[in-house]
Amino acid sequence: MPATVKYTIFLIQALLVILPPRAVNAQTPFINDAGRWIFQSRTAGWLCLASAVLIILLAAGMAAFFVQSRRARKLKAEVKRHRQVAYEALKRQQALADTLNHLNDFVYYHDLAGNFYEFNIAVERIADYSETELRQMNIKDLVPDPYKREVDDYLERIRKTGKERGYMRIVNKKGRQVILEYNTSVIYEDGTRAAGIRGIARDITEQHYTSQALKKSEKKYRTILNTIEDGYYEVDLTGHYQLLNRSALVLLGYDWEELKDRHYKKLIAPEDVHTVFETFNYVFRTHKPVKTFNWRAIRKDGSLCHLETSVS
User: pTM (2 decimals)?
Assistant: First the structure.
């Protein structure tokens, strides 16, 4: 029962207690037990009754006012709390967005069909498209024509496995090709329903072409080493062979697989082990090359061969 109704009933009951029993049961509350009017005139009685009713109404109004004030205070506190929670959430969201926009890596979201709907500034910078343009684009719009069919395979794999990582080649608005290393995963709603895909990618274009150039240079370097008549070898800091050219292998009578990661001391005549060690140690400590020193190597057949070697 509402508090206002309770207060009103209480005041009416209090008024009825004040009046004599007969007056309560009679048609008018202004007659005493002897049947006479309590007040000297009916006008005074009606005025008294009006005053009592007015007091009751005022009391009821006051009660209602206090109840509503209390409710208003509670509502105001609840609204303030919700505003504070919303403000804190907005601050966290802005801080996260600011962090994402300071990353060099690409952070992006697209639906299960490959249509972009969220991304950080790095994506706009590398793709060279505006935010409005990117929101209207699909992954296929960034991939060169020969690789567009692979986008469907990518989307199919990630829908089945829930995650995918690999490399992707895109073309930006200016026509420059960019190679990306990406890592993506499915976003689930309610723990089961796939709602979209989030991903992070890194521009490895420069590293890719540097690696290609290094491999090409290494291939050329090995070709040169394998065509010279002099023997050539490399060891790591622990003395294990890391490289021998074809002439050195022929000279010693071994295949590369037999000598790979083998220690150099096993191929040196015992009497020359100390000399070879001191020479290599000197080069390591001083960073000065030794142009010539002689030592004896043990071939696969056990015979010795005399070698003149330079070390750097």
Answer: 0.49
